[in-house]
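In response to the reviewer comment on reproducibility (Comment 2.3), we provide here a single inverse folding case reported in full, input and output, so that an independent group could reproduce the run without further information from us. The C-alpha cells appear first.
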C-alpha cells in the first residue's frame, strides 16, 4: 500500500488496536514500525494488567471498552491471550489509603463500575496470603475490589490483534522507521521512512516513547517523556492468587507495587520507582529485584521462597499529569496524536483504537468529545491523575 487512507506510526499497545479498529471499519490502513514485529516496544514490557478501575472518567470509559475486547477475545476470535478475569484488589493498611480509595469509589460507582469496598476479612477471603499487619504495625483494613478487571499476555494479545487487523485488510511493514512527515500547506501528506515514501491524508502518531520526536517532524510539540520501570517473572507454581494486587503505599525508592499470578502459574510483578527514572536505557538494574522482593515479602510472606526467572526494563510514556494525549495536531491538519499512555497504554489500547477510528470517520460521540477535552495534547496539565 503506497497510498493508504491512514498511516499509523507504531505497532504497539496503541497502534495495533488503532489499525484493527480502522481496518474493521473499512479504512485502508498501513502500519509502519521500526521493530521486527508487533508489540516489541513498551507493549512487551507491560505486565498485562487490564482494568476499568480508574480515577479519571475518560479513562474509565476507555478502559471499559478495552476490557470488553480483551475479556471476550478468545470467545469472539478464537485466540488464547491468557486472559484471566481475576479482578483488581487495591489494598489498604493505613487510614490515608482507605480515605483515598473510598473517595475514588464514589466516582467509580457513579460511572457504573462494578467495584466495592471489602473489609479486612472479605479481602482476606479474596487474597488469603496477604500479611495481616505491615512491618510498621499497621493492620490490614481491607480495600477495593473490582471483579471484572483482569490480566493477560501483552505479546499474545498484540499479535492476535495484529493478525485480526491483517485479516480485516490492514498492512504492517516492520523494520521501517519513519524519518520524515510530509507537511504542505498546513496539511500532512504522508511519511518518509528509511525504506521509502507513502502518502495518506491522515497519519496517526502512535509512536509511544518516541511520540514527541515524531510530532517534532511536523514542528509540533508533545509532552511525552520516557519513564523507566522494571518488572519480573517467577517460576510457575500452583495457583494461589486470583486478583491483581496493588499496594499504593510509598516505600524506599518506590511509589507502589503491583503483581498477579499468570494463567501459567508465574508471579508477574513490578513497582513504580520514586523519584522517577527518566531516559531510554533499557538495561535492567541490580537495584530493582532486592527492592521489589522486600516489598512483596512484607505484603505476602509466603512469596519468600519463590524463585525469580527474569527481570526486564521498559518505559512508561509519561505526560505531566498522568493522562494520555489524544487529539488532532494544531500544526498539521490530518496528523492525529494517540500517545502519552503512561502506565496504562496496554489496558487503554483497544478503547483508544475505537476512539481514533471514530475520529478518523468523523463520527465522534458526545462522550468522545468529553474524553478528547480531557486528553487534549495542548491542555494546561494541572493536577495529577490519582491512579496513574
Ligand atoms: C514494567 C512495565 C509494566 C507495565 N505494566 C502495564 C500494565 O500492566 N498495563 C498497562 O496497560 N500498561 C502497562 N505498562 C505501560 C505500557 O507498556 C505502555 O503504556 C504502552 O505499552 C504504551 O503503548 P504505545 O503504543 O504508546 O507504545 P509502544 O507499545 O512502545 O509502541 C510504540 C511503537 O512505535 C514504534 N516507533 C517509535 N518511533 C517510530 C518511528 N519513528 N518509526 C516507526 N516506528 C516507531 C516503536 O518501535 C514501538 O513499537 C507497563 C510498562 C512497563 C515498563
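Designed residues, in position order:
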Amino acid at each position: 500500500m503506497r497510498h493508504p487512507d491512514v498511516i499509523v506510526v507504531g505497532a504497539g499497545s496503541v497502534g495495533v488496536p488503532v489499525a484493527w479498529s480502522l481496518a474493521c471499519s473499512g479504512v485502508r490502513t498501513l502500519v509502519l514500525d521500526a521493530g521486527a514485529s508487533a508489540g516489541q516496544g513498551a507493549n512487551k514490557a507491560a505486565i498485562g494488567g487490564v482494568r476499568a478501575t480508574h480515577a479519571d472518567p475518560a479513562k474509565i470509559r476507555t478502559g471499559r471498552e478495552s476490557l470488553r475486547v480483551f475479556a471476550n477475545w478468545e470467545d469472539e476470535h478464537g485466540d488464547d491471550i491468557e486472559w484471566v478475569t481475576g479482578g483488581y484488589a487495591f489494598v489498604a493498611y493505613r487510614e490515608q489509603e482507605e480515605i483515598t480509595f473510598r473517595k475514588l469509589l464514589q466516582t467509580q460507582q457513579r460511572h457504573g463500575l462494578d467495584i466495592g469496598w471489602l473489609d479486612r476479612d472479605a479481602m482476606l477471603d479474596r487474597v488469603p496470603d496477604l500479611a495481616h499487619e505491615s512491618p510498621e504495625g499497621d493492620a490490614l483494613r481491607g480495600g477495593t475490589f473490582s471483579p471484572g478487571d483482569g490480566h493477560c499476555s501483552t505479546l499474545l494479545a498484540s499479535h492476535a490483534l495484529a493478525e485480526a487487523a491483517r485479516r480485516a485488510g490492514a498492512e504492517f511493514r516492520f523494520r521501517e522507521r519513519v524519518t520524515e512527515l510530509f507537511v504542505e500547506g498546513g496539511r500532512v501528506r504522508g511519511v518518509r521512512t528509511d525504506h521509502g515514501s507513502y502518502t495518506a491524508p491522515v497519519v496517526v502518531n502512535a509512536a509511544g516513547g518516541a511520540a514527541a520526536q515524531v510530532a517534532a517532524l511536523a514542528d509540533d510539540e508533545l509532552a511525552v517523556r520516557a519513564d523507566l520501570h522494571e518488572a519480573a517473572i517467577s517460576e510457575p507454581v500452583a495457583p494461589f492468587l486470583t486478583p491483581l494486587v496493588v499496594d499504593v503505599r510509598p516505600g524506599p525508592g518506590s511509589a507502589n507495587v503491583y503483581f498477579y499470578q499468570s494463567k501459567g502459574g508465574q508471579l508477574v510483578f513490578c513497582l513504580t520507582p520514586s523519584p522517577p527514572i527518566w531516559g531510554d536505557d533499557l538495561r535492567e538494574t541490580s537495584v530493582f529485584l532486592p527492592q521489589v522482593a522486600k516489598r512483596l515479602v512484607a505484603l505476602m510472606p509466603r512469596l519468600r521462597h519463590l524463585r525469580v526467572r527474569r527481570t526486564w526494563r521498559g518505559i512508561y510514556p509519561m505526560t505531566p499529569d498522568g493522562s494520555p494525549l489524544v487529539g488532532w495536531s494544531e500544526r498539521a491538519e490530518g496528523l492525529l496524536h494517540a500517545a502519552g499512555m503512561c502506565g496504562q497504554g496496554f489496558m487503554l489500547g483497544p478503547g483508544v483504537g475505537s476512539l481514533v477510528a471514530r475520529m478518523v470517520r468523523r463520527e465522534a460521540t458526545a462522550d468522545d468529545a468529553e474524553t478528547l477535552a480531557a486528553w487534549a495534547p495542548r491542555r494546561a496539565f494541572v493536577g495529577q491523575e490519582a491512579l496513574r
